[in-house]
C-alpha cells in the first residue's frame, strides 16, 4: 500500500465524514454511548466551522484513494490567569479495512511534522495508552498538567513541540473544545447523522 498524506480540501469533506463514521461505527461502542450512532463524523464537521485548524486537517490516501483523516483543534492550558495555547488532536480515522497497515502512523507523523513547521508549541489529547508513546507522547502528568477536572491518568497525553513550552503551564488544567462532550451534543449528533445518512 502506497500511503501519502496531504491537507484536506473542500472536495474531501463528504468522503472524510464517511471514513470517520465508518471507523467509529462498531456496534458495542455505539450502543454504550446511548446515542445510537457514532458522533466523530459530526465532530469533524463542527471542527471545520469552529475550533479546527485547516492546515492541520490531513487526509491519507492509499494508492490515490482517501482512506484516513486526522484533525487538530485549538485548546488551552489554564493556570490561574495564565493561559497557554496548545493543540488538541483527534478524531483520527482510518477505514476499517485499511487499519493496522500504517495509515494512522503516517497521519500522526505528518501532523506532528506540520505542527512543528507551523510553530505550535505543544499538543495534548486523550487516547489509547498502548498506542501513542511510540510517537514520543508522554503522560501529561510529566509536564504538570491535569485535565479540566484536575485529574491525570495514562490515557491523557502531552508532547512539547517546542522544548520547554509547557513549563509555564505547570500546575494548569487542559481545556478542549466543547464539541468533544458527547452528552452535551447528543441531540445535534443525532440530527446530523440522520441528515447525513439521508444525503
Percent of residues in helices? 25-40%
Number of strands: 8
What amount of the residues lies in strands?
Answer: 25-35%
Order of helices and strands, N to C? EHHHEEEHEEEEH
Oligomer: single chain
Instruction: State Rg.
Output: 17 Å
SS summary, helix count: 5
Q: Give the overall shape, derived from the CA principal axes.
A: globular
Note poorly predicted spans.
Answer: none
Query: Mean pLDDT, nearest integer?
Result: 93
Described by strand count, sense and barrel closure, the largest sheet is:
8 strands, mixed
Q: What structural class do you assign from the helix and strand content?
A: alpha+beta
The termini sit apart by: 31 Å
Question: Which key features would you list for this structure?
Answer:
199 residues; alpha+beta; 5 helices
Note down, in words, how this protein is organized.
It is globular and about 45 Å long. Strands 1, 2, 3, 4, 5, 6, 7 and 8 form an eight-stranded mixed sheet that branches. Helix 1 packs antiparallel against helix 3. With 199 residues, it is of the alpha+beta class. The chain contains five helices and eight strands, in the order E-H-H-H-E-E-E-H-E-E-E-E-H. The longest helix has 15 residues.
Amino acid at each position: 500500500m502506497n500511503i501519502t498524506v496531504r491537507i484536506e480540501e473542500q472536495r474531501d469533506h463528504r468522503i472524510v465524514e464517511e471514513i470517520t463514521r465508518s471507523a467509529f461505527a462498531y456496534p458495542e461502542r455505539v450502543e454504550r454511548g446511548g446515542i445510537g450512532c457514532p458522533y466523530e463524523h459530526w465532530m469533524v464537521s463542527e471542527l471545520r466551522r469552529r475550533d479546527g485548524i485547516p492546515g492541520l486537517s490531513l487526509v491519507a490516501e492509499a494508492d490515490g484513494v482517501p482512506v484516513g483523516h486526522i484533525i487538530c483543534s485549538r485548546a488551552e492550558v489554564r493556570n490561574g490567569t495564565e493561559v497557554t495555547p496548545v493543540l488538541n488532536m483527534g478524531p483520527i480515522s482510518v477505514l476499517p479495512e485499511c487499519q493496522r497497515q500504517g495509515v494512522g502512523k503516517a497521519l500522526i507523523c505528518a501532523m506532528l511534522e506540520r505542527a512543528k513547521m507551523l510553530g505550535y508549541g505543544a499538543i495534548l489529547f486523550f487516547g489509547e495508552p498502548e498506542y501513542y508513546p511510540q510517537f514520543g507522547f508522554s503522560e501529561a502528568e510529566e509536564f504538570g498538567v491535569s485535565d479540566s477536572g484536575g485529574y491525570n491518568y495514562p490515557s491523557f497525553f502531552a508532547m512539547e513541540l517546542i522544548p520547554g513550552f509547557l513549563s509555564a503551564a505547570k500546575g494548569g488544567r487542559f481545556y478542549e473544545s466543547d464539541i468533544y462532550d458527547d452528552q452535551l451534543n447528543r441531540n445535534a449528533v443525532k440530527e446530523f447523522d440522520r441528515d447525513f445518512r439521508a444525503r
